[in-house]
Amino acid sequence: MTTQAISEAQLHALADGVLPEAQRAAIEAHLRAHPEDAARVDAWREQNRQLRALFDPVLDEAVPPALRQAAAPPAANGAWRRPAMQAAAAIVLVVAGGAGGWLLRGGDGVSASASPISLARSAAIAHAVYTPEVRHPVEVGAAQEAHLVQWLSKRLGTQLQPPALSPLGYQLIGGRLLPGDGDGPVAQFMYEDGKGQRLTLYVARERSGRQETAFRYTQEKDLSVFYWIDGQLGYALSASLPKQALGKIADAVYAQLEQAR
User: Fold this and answer.
1) CA angle 183-185-190, nearest 5°?
2) Three-class HEC string of 76-133
3) Tell me: the pLDDT tens digits for 150-170?
4) Phi, psi angles (nearest 5°) of residue 137
């Protein structure tokens, strides 16, 4: 745990390489005295490295003609043509997407508010970063499930319970704590089937506290994400599975979460 003198923002700034030099000595002294925080900073640095490896190549891609057209000045009469408006909306989504242009396309035609889309995007990135790991896909393994649940529940400030997906062929292999987007830390539970196929359940606190329980779906290449917000928590289930197959698992996850309430 960090002390009051050292904030979470300062640790993130160190990991991101933007910490003011005047603060560096105090932060590094803190990390020497707090190995848990040092391990978190190392994990964030590794996450940054993997994200850059995944998404930096997008920066070298040519700008699509539709986006160049949207960036052009409006017509002389001051009216935007409909295609230009649609392309401009795409630019807004790309900017909001961040992470090197990781843009998730909604698969069910339902427009999502900024918070749910952010949830899905963050879950997809975390899935892409950690599921390929062979030796360290999780921080705490399933052999210590009771400790894992207690730890993550304490950090998120609410009782968590990873769903049992063994009837669907997936076993819990563990989980990890991840930095959130401003609403505190998030939890990631990881599962694996007999063929090595992995799926993740991403759980984050939502300060809005909305009661949206309807599933929403989005997809990028072969990665599918079902996501929803229920009260103070947002959930996102990610896997490289067809929509129908992942939807069946999402139904089971939701049913178990409802039973546990």
Assistant:
1) 130
2) CCCCCCHHHHHHHHHHHHHHHHCCCCCCCEECCCCCCCHHHHHHHHHHHHHHHHHCCC
3) 999 999 889 999 999 999 999
4) -70, -25
Paired sense of beta strands 186-192 and 171-178, if any: antiparallel
Q: How far apart are CA 228 and CA 214, in angstroms?
A: 6
Among the listed residues 250, 260, 252, the one whose alpha carbon sits nearest the alpha carbon of residue 228: 250
User: Is residue 119 within 8 Å of residue 234, measured between CB atoms?
Assistant: yes
Q: What is the DSSP string of 195-210?
A: TS-EEEEEEEE-TT--
Say how many C-beta atoms besides its own lie within 10 A of residue 252's C-beta: 17
Element holding 176 (H helix, E strand): strand 171-178
State yes or no: pLDDT of 219 exceeds 50: yes
Half-sphere exposure of 216 (CA within 13 A, CB side): 25
How many angstroms separate the CA atoms of 203 and 185, rounded? 9
What average pLDDT is seen over the chain? 76
pLDDT tens string 59-115: 565 655 655 554 555 544 444 444 434 433 333 333 333 333 333 333 443 333 335
Q: Coil, helix or strand for 216? A: strand
Q: How many Å apart are CA 189 and CA 152, to the nearest integer? A: 10
- 140 three-state secondary structure: strand
Nearest to 147 by CA among 185, 184, 174: 174
